[in-house]
Fold:
Amino acid sequence: MIQRSLFAYALLATALAAAALVGCGTPSGLGSGEPAPPVAVQPHPEGLWPAWARAGTPPGDAGAAEAAQEQAPPTPLAGLPAVPVRGGLAAMKPDAIVCADSRMKAQCGRARIDLPGRAGVRPPVYRDLTGDGAPELIVAADVESGRIVSVYTAERGKVVQVLFTGGRRLAVEAVGSDLVVRAAASDGAEQAVRYTWDGTRMSTISDEKRYRPCPRSPRSSPDLSPPGSPSTQESPAEKSRAEKGPAEEGP
Structure:
């Protein structure tokens, strides 16, 4: 009787220990009631102008995007009012910023376009590229010689241009806080230049070219079969008919 009681007590103790182990953790490594950590979502490319993305790349001579190079820190644009504290660049007129920029001055007063197919200035895009919570202004223009893109930020109440690039058949995408400019290079490659904020301007962090593989030429063709190959040899019946000459037609 005593042995049976000790055995039952041992079984009960083992069951309680197993239950305690199960309650302490789960196969995922989380404790009971502990929330799962959030899953990090990787940024994916986003077209800044959907109308142009839907239209695809128009035909024309290829020209590569201009990669940003090391240069002096950008200077504020002159002749503009102070950037409003509330609203930032979005509270200013994009046309006034374009007209104050010497690189974009040729686009001052040009028509605003909402669809591809003609020259003009596209709708402005606002996106935080510096990580300070205030969106930058992205302006693009379709010109007769290609496309140009300019990016502006606010620095101590002044408008500063932090990126200027251009080329033919040019498309711009945002990947998180970076910009990717895609174009067809003059040597036939597909070029992708990626820009990121370095504390002063949007600088180049990668410049990749991808070449499309050339189509393989067929090893042989029926029209180019060598003499004596099965495709050019005559069967005995055909050779006999050829020696007898053409058959006589009936009435």
